[in-house]
Task: inverse folding
């Protein structure tokens, strides 16, 4: 059993590495998109002052 | 496209269960063989993403309408292809350490995959280097068509040259048990659906960025710059 499970850490590192990569990519894209959308909204607010339709 | 995310999640849960618990260990490699499932799923998806980049780049050059949108998806598929290739190389190196005793060997499959990774990094760098939108679209599409040559070479490298890399499908049939094949297929679909979702997410980000640039240009125009 001990021999069979001796490489368990490699399995853990392999799966973790893939998940961390995907997580970093998704959070980076998501944060950047949100930031860009906020900038667009701010510009829209500047172009259409309050009270103006 | 949002439903893809909800399809991806259960597929990943089932895939992880099958790969880490359900499928028995392979006697020669023990528990380390479980890296195979995530490694193969990522590798196949990476090759498909690069193929999508090739098809979309061809469409950019051939089509008259919708070039901007097609180009956006071409870039996104190359990025996801690089992400998946990085995951393939990382998981493969860890598995190689157990199976072959070294993180890296200059095996044809490993070498051609590393070359593919560098070629597509070059694709992204080329896009970054050009400001003119039309030039960027055409030049990067032509570059994508040329570098795609490496993708079938990656797949066929184990048949063309002497390789120690394991092969799943051979002329004599499948090299894995039916139980392992089920886990492979589920993991592959989980990765594929995730990749499609990520491509859409990345293309959408690019669309928002272009919209912002257009608005900025209009504003500067109004101010007389």
Result:
């Amino acid at each position: 059993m001990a021999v069979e499970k001796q490489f368990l850490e490699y399995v853990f590192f392999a799966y973790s590495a893939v998940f961390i990569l995907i997580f970093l990519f998704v959070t980076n894209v998501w944060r950047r998109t949100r930031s860009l959308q906020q900038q667009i909204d701010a510009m829209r607010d500047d172009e259409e002052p309050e009270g103006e339709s | 496209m949002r439903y893809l995310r909800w399809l991806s999640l259960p597929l990943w849960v089932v895939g992880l269960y099958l790969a880490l618990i359900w499928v028995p260990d392979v006697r020669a490699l023990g528990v380390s063989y479980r890296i195979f499932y995530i490694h193969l799923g990522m590798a196949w998806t990476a090759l498909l993403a690069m193929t999508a980049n090739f098809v979309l780049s061809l469409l950019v050059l051939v089509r008259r309408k919708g070039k901007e949108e097609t180009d956006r998806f071409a870039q996104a598929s190359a990025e996801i292809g690089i992400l998946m290739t990085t995951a393939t190389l990382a998981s493969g190196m860890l598995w190689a350490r157990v199976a072959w005793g070294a993180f890296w060997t200059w095996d044809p499959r490993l070498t051609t995959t590393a070359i593919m990774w560098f070629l597509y990094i070059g694709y992204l760098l080329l896009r970054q280097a050009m400001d003119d939108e039309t030039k960027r679209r055409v030049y990067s599409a032509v570059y994508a068509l040329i570098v795609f040559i490496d993708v079938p070479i990656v797949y066929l490298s184990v048949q063309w040259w002497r390789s120690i890399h394991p092969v799943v499908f051979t002329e004599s049939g499948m090299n894995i048990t039916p139980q392992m094949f089920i886990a492979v297929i589920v993991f592959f679909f989980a990765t594929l659906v995730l990749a499609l979702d990520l491509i859409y997410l990345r293309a959408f980000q690019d669309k928002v960025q272009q919209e912002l640039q257009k608005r900025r240009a209009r504003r500067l125009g109004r101010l007389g710059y």
The longest strand of chain B covers residues 169-170. Residues 11-20+31-167+175-217 of chain B form one domain. Residues 178-222 of chain B form the longest helix (45 residues). Chain B touches chain A through 33 residues (CB under 8 Å).
